[in-house]
Amino acid sequence: MLSITRFLNSVRSIGLPDFRLPWKNIIYFQSQAHSTIKKIEQSFNQQLPVEIALTPPTFWYTDPSVLNYEKNAIFMKNWLAVSRCDQVASHGQYTSGTIFDEPYLLVRGEDKVLHGFFNICRHHATILTDSSSGTTSQFECPYHGWTYNLEGRLTKATRLRGIKNFVAKDFGLKPIAVRTWGPMVFMCLDDSTHSNSGTNATETNGWMPQLEVMLNSMKNMSPMSDMKHVRSTSYSINCNWKVFIDNYLDGGYHIPYAHKELSSSLDGKTYALKQYDGKCSENFRLTNPHWECDTCILTKMLTKK
Question: Which residues of the chain have pLDDT under 50?
């Protein structure tokens, strides 16, 4: 069964009838959000040069209101990679997961189009599938049996015969925008971010222009397009998400000490961290030009006990 928190998040995501909160509570939540934004802005000056700048204050990593603000300002409004294209190449193939705490479903329809949906039944907000991937001809809710086709249309609503004003086509799965770039599939949960570009597209169509220039320049250097998905592994990390990202982005600082074997195949002097459209890229020049060798080193580092 869903936890109360997930249920409330699901209700908001898929548009079930809202709970009629007292106006004083709505005003309180809005006031709290504005207070959080003001507190964040006043606590950190991002215009300072790096030579005199400080790290963000502690409450950025511990205050729940800051985390909620980041969810709506960052995770909901950005395009995030959720799958490889070869995982959903044939009709009926699907993958599922969560972006922050929002459950999503990615599936190749009978129409050969890639579709993204909230992985939530429109009836009582039950998760449709707990499986991370698979192949199916339809999605049946495990709670009351409501059934949806691969294009998200409601095809069966049990025991509703004779119910007036119920129109099945109005209760399809709530869509999520999908884009692909090369071998990767991206999703964006916020309707306003892509309102002028449609829900699904086979390529990025300029939705991250500066980053695309950099990525396109790497296409002939990287074996990513020739790779196939083998398996997925999830890790639960007991830390604020920014701590994990900070660890990843300081690769030029900790790799020589924490990952000596990997460091031996990288030229530390060429380390560069660049920003593109609010996103970052981290680059090293390989001291060994053979991708196969470096892939073996990376695999060994990742699987070492």
Answer: 1-13, 15-29, 196-198, 291-305
The 10s digit of each residue's pLDDT in 180-191 is 887 889 999 987
E-assigned strands of 23-113? Answer: 80-84, 93-99, 102-108
- Tokens 């995030």 -> residue: 80
Cβ atoms of residues 263 and 252 within 8 Å:
no
DSSP 8-state class, residue 82: E
Query: Which pLDDT score is estimated for 49?
Result: 87
* Alpha carbon distance 294, 273 (integer Å): 21
Buried b (16+ CB within 10 A) or exposed e, 239-266: eeeeeeeeeeeebbeebeeeeeebbebb
Please give the C-alpha separations between residue 233 and each of 7, 82, 139, 241, 297, in angstroms, as whole numbers: 26, 13, 24, 18, 19
User: Considering only CA atoms, which of 214, 232, 213, 227 is closest in space to residue 291?
Assistant: 227
Can you name the residues that pair with 280 across neighbouring β-strands?
Answer: 275
- The radius of gyration of the chain from alpha carbons, rounded to an integer in Å, stands at 22
As beta bridge partners, residue 116 has: 106, 176
**Closest residue by Cα to residue 184 from 215, 161, 213:** 215
CB 132 within 8 A of CB 95: yes
CA distances from 74 to 69, 94, 130, 158, 194 (A): 8, 25, 26, 38, 15
Return the closest-CA partner of residue 94 out of 112, 106, 109: 106
